[in-house]
Amino acid sequence: MLLPGPLIAGDVGAREAAPLVAARAPFTATLSNLSPLAFGMDVGETSRVLAQPLIYLNGTPGNETFLALRNLGGSGLVPHHHRLFLKFRGGRLTGWKEDYGTNWMWR
Predict the structure, then answer these.
(1) Parallel, antiparallel, or unpaired for β 55-60 and 92-99?
(2) Are 90 and 76 in contact (CB under 8 A)?
(3) DSSP letters of 56-76?
(4) Is residue 27 assigned to a domain?
């Protein structure tokens, strides 16, 4: 069976207009970093974005290490408190590390 030429040409043009591969999100869109932190924040700004007070651990003025205890809920039986260590140099946030730790019950 033969199809008319314009119908075949129109069909080919429609297929060419459609993208062959769907556009993918950039890699950074798939990261699981839920912390609203950014390098260069001061202590007050960091405390505000985390919505909790920071606990001083050690260091000289301007070069301190702080701790934020993040209550992330839990099962109701055992609450989960994750520790977030924040390093400041020159009064600005230069790094952070989240420590999930281990619960004393499971040792």
Answers:
(1) unpaired
(2) no
(3) EEEEETTEEEEEEEEEEEESS
(4) no
Domain membership of residue 6 (yes or no) is no
The answer as to whether 96 is a domain residue is yes
Is 50 inside any structural domain?
Answer: yes
Contact status, residue 96 vs residue 85, Cβ threshold 8 Å: yes
Question: Which of left, alpha, beta for 62 (phi over 0: left; psi -120 to 50: alpha)?
Answer: left
Number of domains forming the structure of the chain: 1
In tens, the pLDDT along 13-38 reads 555 555 566 677 665 565 555 568 89
In DSSP terms, 58 is beta-bridged to 65
pTM above the 0.70 mark? Answer: no
- 101 is in which domain, residue-wise? 40-107
Calpha distance 17→33 (Å, rounded): 37
Q: Would you state the pLDDT for residue 35?
A: 61
